[in-house]
């Protein structure tokens, strides 16, 4: 698969410490290099970013000073994360890239365009704004990538995406990548592509299986934060806890901070700097727990998450899979904890039955998680 790429990418691969490409990389890269449109589904943590980034970098023409590729992602954090990957893999190649995200200073972002980037990484709203202001010219764009496509093709974003695709010429290549791809999302993607290949990787055999345990605690709704406090006190924990409602996040974090626990929060109403600061502190191990909404945590690659906590019950099985996929990445071990009421317990058992996952009921004994005594 890597024999057909430029030498700077072979070099970067050698330095990366990766041994063999993952299933999505093996399947997607040759298709993209051929110039075919692609709709790809592959589970969280299977190396989707490199599956499109390597062939995109390989196709950039250094002599051409205009924007040749656009990579769209659903959140500011995901855009910045992909941009950082780009910086790592494009090192020494001379390829110029720039990021454009909503909420950031527009004037400063316009300065970046003066440096003539060949690849841009953007949130859809900000990119469309720049296209409408005629600051970004899309007529030479040869490749368009949509990361977390299921989020970008929701009713909220789909018209923005259609307008962006319309602004490019007919002979461009369009690539959709997602961890979960519903039939209706696939259909919308097909309408925006030309004879796209569809690939679905259900399970990546190239990644050694980490052991992820799925456990739950039975709790009244009002007692859930007390349980979360006990979880945050566990030794060596690095946990992502999910809450559905933004207003509830601040309340839960304040309660835990009051108990001297190093807990941060992540949601869409925080400004860019607050979000980056919380993520950095969590990545660096200064925070034991990050309480987040689903939107804020979509697609984020945070190494070494030991526990995922469903404080609020997921709205559907797909959300349970997405959240749970934040732990046990790339063969590591992890624990998924659901805090459930009696009604939610029935739903959780149903999810795990459908997913063929063993599920265990647990309780706390002397500050530690212990098995239920039958």
How would you briefly describe this protein structure?
Helices cover 39% and strands 19% of the residues. The chain is α/β, with parallel strands linked by helices and 374 residues long. The protein has 2 domains: 2-200, Rossmann fold (3-Layer(aba) Sandwich); 212-371, Rossmann fold.
How would you summarize the topology of this molecule?
Elements lengths: L6 H10 L6 H12 L3 E4 L6 H12 L9 E4 L3 H14 L7 E4 L5 H9 L4 E4 L1 H9 L10 E5 L1 H4 L5 H9 L6 E6 L4 H9 L5 E4 L11 E7 L5 H9 L6 E4 L3 H13 L4 E4 L5 H12 L5 E4 L1 H4 L9 E4 L6 H8 L9 E7 L1 H13 L4 E7 L2 E4 L3
Parallel strand pairs: 1-6, 1-7, 2-4, 2-5, 3-4, 5-6, 8-13, 8-14, 9-11, 9-12, 10-11, 12-13
Antiparallel strand pairs: 14-15
Helix pairs in contact: 2-3, 3-4, 6-8
Structural features, described:
This protein has 374 residues and is an alpha/beta fold. The protein folds into two domains: 2-200, Rossmann fold (3-Layer(aba) Sandwich), CATH 3.40.50.300; 212-371, Rossmann fold (3-Layer(aba) Sandwich). The chain is built from 15 helices and 15 strands. The protein has helices at residues 7-16, 23-34, 48-59, 76-89, 106-114, 124-132, 149-152, 158-166, 183-191, 224-232, 246-258, 272-283, 294-297, 317-324, 342-354, and strands spanning 38-41, 69-72, 97-100, 119-122, 143-147, 173-178, 197-200, 212-218, 239-242, 263-266, 289-292, 307-310, 334-340, 359-365, 368-371. The strands form two sheets. It has an eight-stranded mixed sheet with strand order 10-11-9-12-13-8-14-15, with helices on both faces. Strands 3-4-2-5-6-1-7 form a seven-stranded parallel sheet, sandwiched between helices. α14 links the parallel β12 and β13. α2 (23-34) runs parallel beside α3, α3 (48-59) packs across α4 and α6 packs across α8. The longest helix has 14 residues, at 76-89. The protein is globular.
């Amino acid at each position: 698969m890597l024999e057909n790429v430029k030498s700077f990418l072979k070099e970067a691969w050698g330095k990366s410490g990766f041994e063999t490409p993952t299933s999505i990389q093996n399947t997607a890269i040759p298709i993209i290099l051929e110039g075919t449109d692609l709709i790809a589904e592959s589970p969280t943590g299977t190396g989707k970013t490199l599956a499109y980034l390597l062939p995109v970098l390989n196709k950039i023409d250094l002599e051409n000073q205009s924007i040749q590729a656009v990579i769209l992602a659903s959140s500011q954090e995901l855009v910045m994360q992909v941009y950082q990957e780009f910086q790592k893999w494009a090192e020494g190649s001379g390829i110029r890239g720039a990021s454009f995200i909503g909420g950031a200073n527009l004037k400063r972002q316009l300065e970046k365009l003066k440096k003539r980037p060949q690849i841009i990484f953007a949130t859809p709203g900000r990119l469309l704004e720049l296209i409408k202001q005629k600051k970004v010219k899309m007529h030479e764009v040869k490749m368009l990538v949509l990361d977390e496509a299921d989020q970008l093709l929701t009713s909220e974003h789909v018209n923005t995406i259609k307008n962006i695709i319309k602004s490019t010429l007919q002979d461009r290549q369009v690539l959709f990548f997602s961890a979960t791809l519903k039939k209706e999302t696939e259909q919308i993607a097909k309408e925006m592509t030309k004879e796209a290949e569809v690939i679905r990787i259900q399970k990546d055999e190239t990644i050694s299986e980490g052991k992820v345990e799925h456990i739950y605690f039975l709790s009244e709704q009002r007692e859930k934060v007390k349980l979360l406090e006990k979880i945050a006190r566990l030794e060596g924990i690095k946990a992502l806890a999910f809450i559905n409602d933004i207003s509830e996040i601040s309340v839960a974090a304040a309660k835990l901070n009051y108990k001297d626990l190093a807990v941060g929060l992540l949601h869409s109403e925080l400004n860019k700097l607050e979000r980056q600061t919380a993520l950095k502190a969590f990545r660096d191990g200064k925070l034991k727990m990050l309480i987040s909404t689903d939107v804020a945590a979509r697609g984020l690659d945070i190494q070494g998450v030991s526990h995922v906590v469903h404080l609020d019950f997921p709205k559907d099985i797909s959300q349970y899979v997405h959240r749970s996929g934040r732990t046990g990445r790339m063969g590591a071990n992890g624990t998924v904890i659901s805090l459930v009421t009696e009604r939610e317990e029935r739903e959780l058992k149903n999810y795990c039955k459908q997913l063929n996952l063993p599920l265990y009921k647990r309780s706390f004994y002397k500050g530690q998680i212990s098995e239920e005594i039958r």
